[in-house]
Fold this protein.
Amino acid sequence: PGLGPVICAGIIAEIGDIHRFPNDSALAKFSGLTWREHQSGEFEADTTPLTKTGNAYLRYYLIQAANSVRQYEPEYREFYSRKFRESKTHYHRRALVLTARKLVRMVDALLRSNQLYLPKGQRRNLA
């Protein structure tokens, strides 16, 4: 969805065999698209930084892909806009990373099922 061959090849190359990850959360953690937890007793921080552990190249490819996808896909554009409005600080960056996290779920599902991406309107026509 709005991704070129370089970004797609980079994502696939950095992931390798998708079956080495038990689920999409493990893939997100591998790419560093998870947040640190800051809590003490009853206190929980509102904003927490990304862990940035994991594969920096994959994180870069996924964030660039999310930035492109939000421009072409209405579902991702709406998701990005909603997260942009909900964010308290670093609006664009936080919304973009959350969009990349959503993209990880889609990439994981597509690679596991060995299918090509079809826009939402075309999915129903094939069933």
Remarks:
- The mean pLDDT is 85.
- DSSP finds six helices and two strands in the chain.
